[in-house]
Amino acid sequence: MSQKKYLLRSGGSFRNELNYNNFLLKSLKSWYNLLKYKNVRSDLMFEGLVYSIGRVMDGTYSALGTCTLIHTGNQTSLLVTAAHVANGNDENLFIRPNDNFVGGYQDTTVNHFTVHGVKIVAIDPLRDVCILTFKDRVLSNSNVYLSNCENINLGEKVNVVGFPHSNLGRIVLTQQSCEVGAKILLSSNIIKSKHLVLNIQARPGQSGGPIFQISEDGRINLIAILLGAYAPTIKAGIRLGDIDPQTLHQTTHAVSAEYLERML
After folding, report:
1. What is the spatial distance between Cα 66 and Cα 70, in angstroms, rounded to a whole number?
2. Residue 33, SS3?
3. Model confidence pLDDT, tens digit, residues 207-231
């Protein structure tokens, strides 16, 4: 398959654009800063590692969630996200590089950008996690390591990175910090899985985003994948506009990344 990258213009058509070297350079810079700094801006740390993921239809990019480039040990380029983001379908599925940074600021006035096609490698529907790779081009590896929730304590701060409200067209790489409120077991088809309850309100576009814990030696551990609001399932309810009132609270849940590690 021939390598393609697309330049999209809002509401318009897209065309082929070769700009792979710039994308690779940004990834390398992000890895360097991840090694050098422990508490810095998200644009320095995660610009080349955490991406918006969505679909291209009729030349328009529609964001679905967040994905992360991970370390694999064999230079294979893999990304991880929540399974419900892709919904088992990688047709017209793309990631959008963060190529709108200017002096540390994200230029939200840019109305054209490049994207990379991705495809599904593996899915665990019971844990709601998914592994992806690039369709046409193999990128270098990452130094974000898959880990688990075993060594995180209640009340400890973690980093949440993603694209809140990107479903509304605001695609801004955003880093937040919050405390771990609880560690719980949730069941899907009698299979129990480990989850974190985070003291933060997640919004559409953050699904699939990484929960990072930075170790004392500066290693970036991806300990969990954000799934969505932590709320009891209610079969019937009202909606206000396009908002589900059940999601308007300050807790979010994330599944342990250990289940992704088992899929590699």
Report:
1. 13
2. helix
3. 999 999 988 888 899 999 999 887 6
pLDDT digits (tens, 9 = 90+) for 249-261: 678 999 999 999 9
Other residues' Cβ atoms within 10 Å of the Cβ of residue 12 = 12
Burial code (b: 16+ CB inside 10 Å, e: under 16) for 35-73 equals eeeeeeebbbbbbbbbbbbbbbeeeebebbbbbbbbbbe
Provide the mean pLDDT of the chain: 82
Q: How many CB atoms lie within 10 A of CB 238?
A: 8
**Model-level pTM?**
0.81
Supply the DSSP string of 112-124, one letter for each residue. EEEEEEEEEEEEE
Kindly give, in sequence order, each residue whose CB lies less than 8 Å from that of residue 148, ignoring residues fewer than 6 positions away: 194, 223, 256, 257, 258, 261
Q: Phi/psi at 28 (nearest 5 deg)?
A: -65, -40
- Cβ distance 34 to 143 under 8 Å? yes
**Going by C-beta distance under 8 Å and a sequence separation of 6 or more, which residues neighbour residue 103?**
none
The two tokens of residue 121 are: 């490698």
pLDDT higher than threshold 70 for residue 60 = yes
Q: 118: Cβ–Cβ under 8 A, 6 or more apart, which residues?
A: 53, 67, 79, 90, 93, 94, 95, 132, 133, 134, 135
Residue, of 136 and 2, whose pLDDT is higher = 136
Give CA–CA dist 21/221, Å, rounded. 27
Tokens for 157, please give them.
């701060």
Give the closest residue to 161 by CA, choosing from 109, 213, 100, 229.
213
User: Do the beta carbons of residue 93 and residue 133 sit within 8 Å?
Assistant: no
How close are the terminal C-alpha atoms of the chain, in Å?
24
Which 3 state secondary structure label does DSSP give 228? Answer: strand
